[in-house]
Amino acid sequence: MNVLEVRNLSKSFGKTKIINDISFHVGEGEIVGFVGPNGTGKTTTLKMISNLIWPDQGEIEIAGYNLFKEREKALSNLAGIVENPGLYQNLSGRDNLKFIQKIRGVSKERLDEVIEITGLKDRLDRKVKKYSLGMKQRLALGMCILTKPKFLILDEPTNGLDPTGTFELRQLIERMAKKEQVSILFSSHMLGEVEKLANRVIYIKEGRIISEKEQVRKEGISYSLLVNHKEKAVKLFEELDWILEINTNENNSIKIRVEEEKIGLVLNQLCKEEIIVLDMEKEKEDLEDVYNQIFLSE
Ligand SMILES: Nc1ncnc2c1ncn2[C@@H]1O[C@H](COP(=O)(O)OP(=O)(O)OP(=O)(O)O)[C@@H](O)[C@H]1O
């Protein structure tokens, strides 16, 4: 059974049709990216699924329950962050979590488990207003999963985060998806993020779904390096077990795939071995081509 079924959903604001007869689903265990340019209706769709606004037409089922006929049952399977996460700024992270724990009747064991997953353990007694945006997002995610929902909705989860915050949040989402077996629908206009997180991507433009693509998630980013001692560099890379992929081309360059955060380390190691980097290029994200074809081709 799919955790989400959306059928023929439409929504207008005034005379403008924002969402135009869209249908899609999210299967069990899937992480689905909802991608499109600004103002194209992503947030509006996520708000309809979260029951924050009503569609003019269409059906939504969550975990098999019709959102409009069996609202409570449907919503008990859903958690999410759409627009600002609802955090009490003057309370500590721990008290924010405990608040949800109490009102939702969550066990102490589950609270401890969630604290572990968020990776915020050492900073939980600070007031939320002193948290970085990334920490706030991680706390909000923790609050979402306290009740072990089947399905999670995240609207632009990494928006506004710096690269470290983005990396930490992505790791948390991946950890959570694996450990909690929660299915996720997230919107984004950051293709790098979508490529790293999603198993499937749904493209939306002007309120219509224009394409859907399965994708194999790839860890890390590819770089092409042109060096003065190719064989020596390849030997070095083969010894570094955190380099995810090595490809040598017919020309003198070497293509490697590493976590983005580790490229500095690669350059350090080359420098130590007195190998000179003559040229370096970051590979274009695969999705970028697809995105350009879909959105810029007209
Ligand atoms: N309550 C509202 N009343 C009138 N128009 C609205 C309302 N909410 C959204 N819109 C309009 O609907 C369109 C789609 O907005 P939406 O926020 O869903 O887009 P989005 O794809 O999430 O974009 P972004 O990435 O910029 O958040 C926009 O033109 C927006 O101005």
From TrEMBL:
Pfam families the record matches: ABC_tran (PF00005)
SMART domains assigned: AAA (SM00382)
GO molecular function: ATP binding; ATP hydrolysis activity
ABC transporter domain segment(s): 4-231
InterPro entries in alphabetical order: AAA+_ATPase, ABC_transporter-like_ATP-bd, ABC_transporter-like_CS, P-loop_NTPase
Alphabetically ordered keywords of this record: ATP-binding, Nucleotide-binding, Transport
Entry similarity comment: Belongs to the ABC transporter superfamily.
The protein's name in its UniProt record: ABC transporter ATP-binding protein
Record organism: Anaeromicropila herbilytica
